[in-house]
Specification:
By secondary structure, the protein is α+β, with helices and mostly antiparallel strands. 29% of the residues lie in helices and 10% in strands. Strands 1-4 form a two-stranded antiparallel ribbon. The protein starts with a helix and ends in a 12-residue tail after the last helix. Belongs to the cytochrome P450 family. It comes from Aspergillus calidoustus.
Length: 136
């Protein structure tokens, strides 16, 4: 089930279920500094958080940012050392259900349900390797 959980997590990283909007109330003085040094006041605006962009950041996920690589979420079982990516990915970089006090209340149910559906599908159908080479 560990690998199935990694598959679900990687799928949600590449294809997050929804975006997030946040309202910045007037008078809060919420400012952001742009890369060119300009300061922008965002009071009274609705900010949309684009999880697809956040979860495909090359600074975090490296050159494989657009590739389906569930192994990035696994630890090496034999040595108990994290895989190349697992230890370097900050928790804030994976946010298909958002983070903090306003995160999705149903995220654990959704994750469990995805794992169960996947496991039931695998159990229901027979799979055979087609092609050249031995089964590893």
């Amino acid at each position: 089930m560990v690998y199935i959980a990694a598959i679900v997590k990687e799928t949600l990283r590449l294809h997050p279920p929804a975006g997030t909007g946040r309202f910045v109330p007037q008078g809060t003085g919420f400012n952001v500094t742009l890369p060119d040094g300009q300061t922008l006041c965002l009071d009274g605006m609705i900010l949309h958080n684009c999880e697809t962009t956040i979860q495909r950041d090359e600074n975090v996920y490296g050159p494989s940012k657009d590739a389906f690589v569930p192994e990035r979420w696994l630890e090496n079982i034999n040595s108990k050392q994290p895989s190349d990516d697992a230890g370097s990915i900050p928790a804030s970089a994976w946010r298909p259900f958002e983070r903090g006090p306003r995160n999705c209340i149903g995220q654990e149910l959704a994750n469990i349900e995805a794992r169960v559906v996947h496991a039931c599908t695998m159990r229901r159908f027979g799979f055979v390797k087609v092609g050249l080479g031995a089964v590893a």
